[in-house]
Amino acid sequence: MSNHDNPGHGHGNDAVVDTAHNDTAHHDSTHHDSTHIDITHIDWEVLGPLLERGAEVQTPFFEAATAWLRELLTDTGAGAGPGGTGTGTGPDSVRRSVRRVLDVGSGPGVTSCLLAHAFPAAEVVAVDATEALLARTRERAARLGLGDRVRTHLAELPGGLDALGGADLIWSSKALHHVGDQRGAVAALAGHLRPGGLLAVSEGGLTPRFLPRDIGLGRPGLQSRLDAVGEEGFAEMRAALPDAVDDIEDWPAFLADAGLRTPRTRSFLVDLPAPLPADAREHIRAGLIRSMELYGDRLDEDDLTTLARLTDPDDAAGITRRPDVFLLSAQTVHTARAQ
Q1: Most buried among 13, 143, 253, 318, using CB within 10 Å?
Q2: pTM of the prediction?
């Protein structure tokens, strides 16, 4: 269970642009990305930095989402409505009211550290199933001067959460769709909310776009074909999960069934126009390489040849050199509050 710090579309095309937790590389012992991958075969020395860079590219989303959560907690969590735990309604009061935050599926900890900045009076617990990524979280927190407030907890979702205790805010991005019973996972997280606490689940949105329809290589519409094979892979991943439940993915309904109230849903746009900086280009290139690894047997020779050129750092038509590469994505966050 892990979101690898990468928000992009929560379905089959995770590997295309979300290369890596709060990634695109969701990882636990039974499932990873959009297919079954054994965690013991993953080289975290290689993948960890990719996940971290992917999350950093998506920082505008995380910052906008955490600002919205602050507003929601100010509205009702800091004295402005029922269930409030504070005494004021301004930014200072919300900072005092949020004392403990859980980042469930934290990956390398990019979002964990952003949450620590957004709620400076809170302890932030990064929860993930991979110790190598939690080690990166600790290193990042120490580097940013947050080592005294960001700690880590090794656990799977939902069974490994019992020892976590309560929280005023629980954030989970791109982790719950890697759990067979998504409705049950939401209920498990809701059970850790303190009175008036907020659960925020980042799932869904729109498929990221990063190239024009016609790129001058191969047949036009490459991204649409990658989306299609990614959706197939995602469906297969979901079906193969332990205790998989074939359920309508209605996240507000899951929150309501967990006994939470005042649901809110909002989508956030990441719009990085061309020409992209080098780190964003490398993020996209790594995602395309991942797509070839996962879905190469589902693509025709023409598309594989195009992908090989796009991922070649020395090719003038490749991602790292062409002037028309951009990044446009939308990520949805669903929230609700404990009684």
Answers
A1: 13
A2: 0.86
